[in-house]
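Sequence, please.
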C-alpha cells in the first residue's frame, strides 16, 4: 500500500509513468484513474446537505453516509466513463487537453479498455447499491433522484457536453440534485430553501467546469464539441465565469438578508482573498505557454483558478454552516 500516493492523489492529479504505475497498489490506481482530487467537490455538497439536515432536526447519519458514498462513487464513475467515451470517440488523441494535465489511463496505456470498464462497473455498482438501499429505506422521490443521477452519469460526456448543456447539467447536479436531493433522502422532506442554500456552492463547481471548458476551447471547437464557452467565445466566457464566482457571495448575502442564514455565514467573505489572488488571471486570455513560476498544473489555467477559489469558498461555507447550526441550536 502506498499511503503517500493516496494522499497525493487526493490533493492533485499526479503525473505517473508506466513504470511507476506498475508499482502502485489498486487503490492508488483507482484514485488516479478517477481523478480523486476533484471528488472533494462532491463530498462538500453532501456535507452541506448533511449540516442543513442537522439544522432541521431530522438528520440520519446512516442515510447521510450512504448518500455521501453513493454520490462520490457516482462522480468517480462519471470520470471513468468520460475518459472511456472520449477515448473511443477519438477525442483524447493527438495530445488533447485531458491527456496533458494528468494521466488518461487509456491514452497513456496505463489501463486497457476492459480494465477501465471494470473499474467503472465496480465503482458504479457501489453507487447503485447505495442508491438501491436508500430507495428501499426512504422511498418517495428517492427513485426519481436516483434515475436523474444515473442519467447525468451516463449522458454528461455525450451528448450533453456536445450540445452546450454540460455546464447546466453540472449546476443542476451539484445544486438541486446533490444538496436538495441529498437533504430529501436524509430527512424525508423536500425544501426549496435548501435548494437555494445549495446555489452558492453549486455556482462554484459550475465555475470550475466552465473554466476547464475555456481552457480547452480551441481544442473542443476543432473537435466539434460545442460546450457553452465554444458558443459564447473566450472573452464573454471569462466574463460569465467571473459572474459565477461573484454570484457565490451575492447568493450567500441574499440568504443572510432573508434570514435563512444567520450573519455568521458572512465568514465566506474570507475567501475573497483567494478571489483577489486569481482575479488578474481573468483579465486576459489564457497564455499560449506556461507562465514562469506557475504551479505544476499546466495546462490547467482558468479551471485551476476556479478550483482553488471554490475549494476555499466551499470550506468556509461549510465552516459557516457548522457555526450557523450551533448558533441556532444554542441560542
Amino acid at each position: 500500500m502506498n499511503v503517500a500516493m493516496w494522499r497525493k492523489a487526493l490533493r492533485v492529479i499526479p503525473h505517473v509513468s508506466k513504470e511507476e504505475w506498475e508499482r502502485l497498489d489498486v487503490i492508488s490506481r483507482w484514485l488516479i484513474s478517477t481523478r480523486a482530487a476533484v471528488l472533494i467537490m462532491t463530498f462538500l455538497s453532501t456535507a452541506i446537505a448533511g449540516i442543513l439536515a442537522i439544522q432541521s432536526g431530522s438528520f440520519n447519519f446512516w442515510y447521510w453516509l450512504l448518500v455521501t458514498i453513493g454520490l462520490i462513487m457516482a462522480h468517480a464513475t462519471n470520470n471513468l466513463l468520460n475518459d472511456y467515451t472520449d477515448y473511443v470517440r477519438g477525442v483524447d488523441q493527438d495530445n488533447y487537453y485531458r491527456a496533458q494535465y494528468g494521466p488518461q489511463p487509456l491514452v497513456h496505456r496505463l489501463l486497457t479498455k476492459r480494465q477501465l470498464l471494470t473499474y467503472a462497473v465496480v465503482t458504479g455498482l457501489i453507487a447503485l447499491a447505495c442508491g438501491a438501499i436508500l430507495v428501499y429505506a426512504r422511498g418517495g422521490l428517492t427513485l426519481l433522484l436516483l434515475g436523474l443521477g444515473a442519467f447525468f452519469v451516463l449522458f454528461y460526456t455525450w451528448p450533453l457536453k456536445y450540445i452546450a448543456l454540460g455546464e447546466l447539467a453540472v449546476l443542476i447536479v451539484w445544486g438541486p440534485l446533490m444538496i436538495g436531493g441529498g437533504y430529501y433522502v436524509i430527512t424525508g422532506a423536500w425544501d426549496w430553501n435548501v435548494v437555494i442554500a445549495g446555489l452558492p456552492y453549486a455556482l462554484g463547481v459550475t465555475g470550475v467546469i466552465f473554466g476547464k471548458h475555456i481552457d480547452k476551447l480551441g481544442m473542443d471547437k476543432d473537435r466539434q464539441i460545442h460546450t457553452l464557452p465554444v458558443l459564447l467565445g473566450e472573452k464573454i466566457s471569462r466574463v460569465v465565469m467571473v459572474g459565477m464566482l461573484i454570484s457565490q457571495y451575492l447568493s450567500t448575502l441574499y440568504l443572510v438578508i432573508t434570514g435563512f442564514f444567520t450573519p455568521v455565514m458572512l465568514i465566506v467573505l474570507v475567501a475573497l482573498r483567494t478571489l483577489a489572488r486569481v482575479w488578474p488571471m481573468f483579465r486576459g486570455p489564457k497564455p499560449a505557454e506556461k507562465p514562469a513560476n506557475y504551479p505544476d498544473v499546466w495546462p490547467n489555467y482558468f479551471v485551476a483558478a476556479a478550483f482553488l477559489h471554490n475549494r476555499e469558498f466551499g470550506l468556509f461555507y461549510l465552516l459557516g454552516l457548522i457555526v450557523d447550526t450551533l448558533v441556532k441550536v444554542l441560542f
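The two ends are 47 Å apart (CA to CA).
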